[in-house]
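Batch job 17 of 40 flagged for manual review because the log was empty.
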Amino acid sequence: MQGPAPILVAGIGNPFMGDEGVGPAVVETFRGSWEGSPLVETVEAGTGGMALLYIMEGRQAAILVDCARMGEAPGTVRRFTPEEARSSKDLPGISLHEGDLLDLVELGRELGMLPPRLVILGIEPSWIGPGGSLSPVVREALPSCVGCLVEEVGAALEALDPAAD
């Protein structure tokens, strides 16, 4: 008998659009430092759109990391469940995301494709635009973002096995 599907940690965003690439950057940094459970799978989901639903399907938990305009200081990390989040995407110019993440989550809910535990870590961007890398302030916030992600992964693993210490 196969065990539970790995916990998904997915970085969402386009690394060629400034701070919109913070999701993949956080996941890449996390991957380089994570020596934890084999029950955790990391994916740089890019601007995956509908493909993200298929990546999440059948899992016990998923943690999505994405930039999010929340009216906070750049680099601020906030944890949301889909029920808590409100879409306030107000990106200047174009966003290469195929659709609003929260709309995608709602579709996944309607199709029964969401894991029982789904968390979104949103990071406030400083700058979004074509051809840029992460802004200095968001780059400096990466260790804090990864710390939040480590805590969230730990909570998800604990929820898989409540007897674990």
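Reviewer: the log was empty due to a logging misconfiguration, but the result itself is present. The chain has one domain: 7-160. Unflagging and moving on to job 18.
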